[in-house]
Amino acid sequence: MNKLLCPILMLCVSSIIYAQSGNVGINTTNPQATLDVNGNLKVRTVETVTSPSNDQAVLLIDKSASGDFVLKEIAVSNLLGSTGAGSSAYSAHRNGSWSLLNINLGDSTYPISLSGNDTRIGDSALFTDGVYTAPISGIYDVNFEVQLSGVDLTVLSGKSLVLYKNTAVWQTKPFNGVRVEVGLFPVATIPVTSTSLHSLVQLDAGDTLTFALNTGGVLPVNLGVLPVSYTSLKLFKVAD
I want to staple 27 with a disulfide (CB 3.0 to 4.6 A). Which of 38, 138, 220, 221 is the partner? Predict the structure, then answer.
């Protein structure tokens, strides 16, 4: 009986497995790779990874005509970078007084003096003298905030935050201001202004964003000598 089953089994297997030029095919008579499976693949046990590292990769299927569904791999770091996490996320901020850079961008507008040393999240090499360089192409969510205290609010009239894309103004935001009471006496107040600019910007790899302040207005003044209590910027890629 065993002698009869063996030939039958070999016949059944050979009907679905084919070899050609060193390639092995399952359900195909013309295998195009070392192992060419024309059908589904089922794996019953797969180890779960909760914190992927750069030593690991993700398998992809190349569905192009030349790829013909060949499996390929992409490094975890490249996969995260291409979707907006990883290398495209950036944050910088500084508490306390600082000055504007002596670089007039036009119309009394000067870049902020934050640089790579003020980086909190991301690659510090991407940010120099108020200018961020996009590492990859995509749509970026950008937030720019400046807070001043102890400033006569009339001085801030006509002044604004300015965001440049490359060399052109992308968006501006005038300064806001309120007075905060100190203690029980309404006359004892400290002027405080906290202004933020929020925008979505389409960038190509290598494009720049410049974070600046316009110091013109009714009473032009060098905002670099004013007591800035806080400034920050945050940006990250949200879509291709």
Answer: 38
